[in-house]
Specification:
Blueprint lengths: L4 H5 L5 E3 L8 H9 L4 E4 L5 H14 L4 E6 L5 H10 L4 E5 L7 H6 L3 E6 L3 H9 L3 E5 L14 H11 L4 E4 L5 H9 L4 E4 L1 H4 L8 H9 L5 E4 L6 E4 L2 H11 L4 H8 L3 H7 L23 H20 L7
Parallel strand pairs: 1-8, 2-3, 3-4, 4-5, 5-6, 6-7, 7-8
Antiparallel strand pairs: 9-10
């Protein structure tokens, strides 16, 4: 019998904070863990020495379980994995690559491994690789997405049919109602990114946070599909990408346009014009910047409210 998400990670609530670039430092991750979820450091925007620093600060900031998200396309991946082992990290989420490449290595070190996927083809690969759980991320998400553009509403039940592994839903989830819906679709827990990115503890720039709060429905769009699909706020840089793609730009042309440090420029440094502003569709539902503790209170209150309404048939009389 498979463990539940709370048993697998030894956490109070089946809520995982996404390991987002330029947002998920030790302050955000420790706050999520201290409030009963699973906080993740986002190694995708950290040089090896910076990752080690954040891991060491996490150890001092919380005695609750936490982990590290590692995109497998990272150029210094071997060095990152060595640091993770040396520092005694117990949980690793891998993404943007083949789960078979590092799962065995990590499992041999006694590390719990979770892999992020965006389509059903990788569900069996995850099982074969020996991962402990899967994150299935719909195209509503802000991070690296599947080119198939499969929504969370469709992706979760599809993958649930293909695997018995603990399944974590991601993409477009930022409310208690969203959590309830994901569990109803067959997920065992949820991963929330954008809502935690726009908190006081997030390392994102305040200008970026305020822009997300102001972003309405339709304010984001999936982009850069020839490279690695990401969901962006529509700004001047987004328009440059759109124009290039409409003119059939090559992968090399898009790489030149993207350059280095675009996401850092936008999310971390607050350049709202020329920066790459990654955020999920749920941005239109985020109306304030508040502490992680308040986000948890709101998520749990709304979840239990809709659960009670459903149970008592107040709204669902078929």
């Amino acid at each position: 019998m498979q463990k539940t998400i709370t048993e697998l990670f030894n956490i109070q609530y089946p809520i995982i904070q996404g390991g987002m670039v330029w947002c998920s430092g030790w302050r955000l991750a420790s706050a999520v863990s201290n409030n009963g979820g699973l906080g993740l450091l986002g190694a995708g925007s950290m040089y090896p020495d910076v990752l080690r620093e954040h891991i060491q600060k996490m150890k001092k900031a919380t005695n609750k379980p936490w982990g590290v998200n590692v995109p497998l396309l990272y150029p210094n991946i071997t060095e990152l994995m060595d640091i993770i082992v040396e520092e005694g990290v117990k949980i690793v989420f891998t993404s943007a690559g083949n789960p078979a490449k590092w799962t065995g290595f990590l499992k041999e070190k006694g590390i719990t491994v979770v892999h992020v996927i965006a389509n059903g083809r990788f569900a069996k690969k995850c099982e074969e690789a020996g991962v402990d759980a899967i994150v299935a991320e719909g195209f509503e998400a802000g991070g690296h997405n599947g080119r198939e553009e499969t929504t969370t509403l469709t992706l979760i039940p599809a993958i649930r049919q293909q695997t018995s592994l603990p399944l974590i839903a991601a993409g477009g989830i930022g409310t208690g109602k969203g959590i309830f819906a994901a569990l109803a679709l067959g997920a065992d827990g949820v991963q929330i990114g954008s809502r935690f990115a726009i908190t006081e503890e997030s390392s994102a720039h305040e200008a970026f946070k305020k822009l997300v709060v102001e972003t309405g429905e339709g304010g984001t769009m999936l982009s850069l599909k020839k490279l690695a699909p990401v969901r962006l706020i529509k700004n001047a840089f987004f328009e440059q990408v759109q124009k290039a793609e409409q003119n059939c730009a090559s992968i090399l042309d898009l790489q030149k346009l993207l350059g280095r440090g675009r996401a850092k420029k936008g999310i971390f440094e607050g350049d709202l014009t020329e920066g790459e502003l990654e955020i999920g569709q749920v941005a239109s539902l985020i109306s304030d910047i508040k502490p992680v503790s308040e986000v948890f209170k709101a998520l749990l209150y709304e979840y239990h409210q809709v659960k009670e309404e459903t149970t008592s048939h107040q709204r669902f009389n078929f």
